[in-house]
Write a structure and sequence with these properties.
The chain is α+β, with helices and mostly antiparallel strands and about 280 residues long. The chain is about 30% helix and about 25% strand.
Length: about 280
């Protein structure tokens, strides 16, 4: 006999994020969540996040969060530590939740934080299966289903929209909106970005990141110009066209991303550190 599908959870945390762009290189600027027990919201979580870099104008036009709004906010490591404590072991639910889970996981990796194993569930996946509307965007589903209106593209508001959508789907399709329909609940920790293994010729970058040491680079820009840079590397991830390095730019004093295939040379002013790095080449 086939076992009955696992029922959708009634106690959970519904969350959403606002960001500077796409994970894993983008940064959090806001996280919002509602904690649900049965049919009631019992608590809310809402925090702005200082992303350690300017927020691009193109995304400010979407969520309205600018540099001034986050200037006094805590960084992601502080906010996520509070968030992880607040959610406890409850399942996490979001709309297109893989984006939000990857954002949270990327920030955790950046700061070498332990990531919890809370199961992650998705209303977008469920809506595609059981509602089958022309558009499954959160904005359009809220409108089409007559859900309570409020602003969009702010984290707490969209978390509440997602919860209303979740409850509405349960009302409309009952047990069809089950655990498997919502994506099966992979662990939040399964969304960690793949961290590339750097070749021996790039060992100085890896060592500088692990020890927090500044480096002097010769870097080729997208226009082909070769420019000098002083940076302190922090971490690496796989980009679309190249392995990427996030580093503190000493000229502008905020974090930027650099393509490894454009780093022509990297040296340290610390002779002992330079010698140490050369042993790995």
């Amino acid at each position: 006999m086939t076992p009955a599908p696992r029922r959708a959870p009634q106690d959970l945390v519904v969350f959403d994020t606002e960001t500077t762009g796409m994970p894993p290189g983008a940064r959090l600027v806001e996280i919002g969540a509602v904690k649900v027990k049965g049919n009631h919201i019992v608590d809310r979580f809402e925090k702005l996040v200082w992303p350690e870099c300017p927020i691009p104008e193109v995304v400010i036009r979407i969520h309205g969060i600018d540099d001034q709004a986050v200037s006094k906010a805590a960084t992601a490591d502080e906010v996520l530590a509070e968030f992880f404590s607040w959610i406890g072991p409850l399942p996490l639910l979001g709309h297109n939740v893989s984006f939000d889970a990857r954002m949270v996981a990327g920030e955790a990796k950046r700061f070498q934080m332990a990531l919890p194993d809370n199961p992650v569930l998705c209303t977008l996946r469920a809506a595609r299966k059981v509602l089958k509307r022309k558009s499954n965007s959160l904005v359009n589903l809220v409108k089409d289903l007559g859900l309570p209106p409020s602003r969009h593209h702010r984290a707490l508001d969209d978390a509440e929209h997602t919860l209303q959508l979740y409850w509405k789907m349960q009302e409309l399709v009952g047990t069809e909106c089950n655990w498997n329909c919502l994506g099966g609940g992979p662990a939040l920790s399964s969304h960690l970005p793949e961290v590339p293994r750097l070749p021996a010729s790039r060992a100085i970058l890896q060592i500088a990141a692990s020890e927090g040491k500044p480096l002097d680079l010769q870097y080729r820009t997208s226009t082909g110009n070769l420019i000098p840079l002083r940076v302190t590397p922090r971490w690496f991830w796989l980009g679309k066209y190249s392995t990427m390095m996030e580093a503190l730019c000493h000229h502008d004093y905020y974090y930027k991303s650099y393509r490894l295939d454009r780093i022509v040379a990297a040296h340290s002013a610390d002779d002992a550190f330079e010698a140490k790095a050369r042993r790995f080449c």
